[in-house]
Amino acid sequence: MASRLRVGDQVVVVSGDDKGNTGVIRELVDGGAKVVVTGLNLVTRSKKGVGGAEGTRVSVEAPLWSSKVMPVDPTTGKATRVRHLMKDAGKVRVAVRSGAVLEWKKAE
Question: Pairing relation of β-strands 56-61 and 64-65?
């Protein structure tokens, strides 16, 4: 099954505490059911000290349900749904809002 979200996509959060914020998908979790977005959905974790050193508190990006994010349309900059079409290069993802092809850069 073709996925509407890929690592490296620019997305906007459509519900929750981070609603309206944008970021880039860093990781897909649970087969794409959840996504980790850079700089969004930050939670605080306590890290234990080692060798007598004090522990620290660290902010970590927690996964979001993929239904809470939508790809950003490259022409309008707004959230859009995704349609899959067959082109010369094979199956491509297309923004429903404008018809623009959603390009993505492979994460390195």
Answer: unpaired
| Sequence ranges of the domains in the chain | 10-95
Give pLDDT tens digits for 24-56. 999 999 888 999 999 999 999 999 999 889 999
In angstroms, the CA 6 to CA 90 distance is 17
The tally of CA atoms less than 13 A away on the side-chain side of residue 103 is 3
pTM of the model: 0.80
Cβ-contact 40, 14 below 8 angstroms? no
**SS3 label, residue 76:** coil
Q: How far is CA 5 from the centre of its chain?
A: 7
Identify the CATH class of 10-95: mainly beta
Going along 1-108, which residue ranges are E strands?
Answer: 10-13, 22-29, 34-37, 42-47, 56-61, 64-65, 69-71, 82-87, 90-95
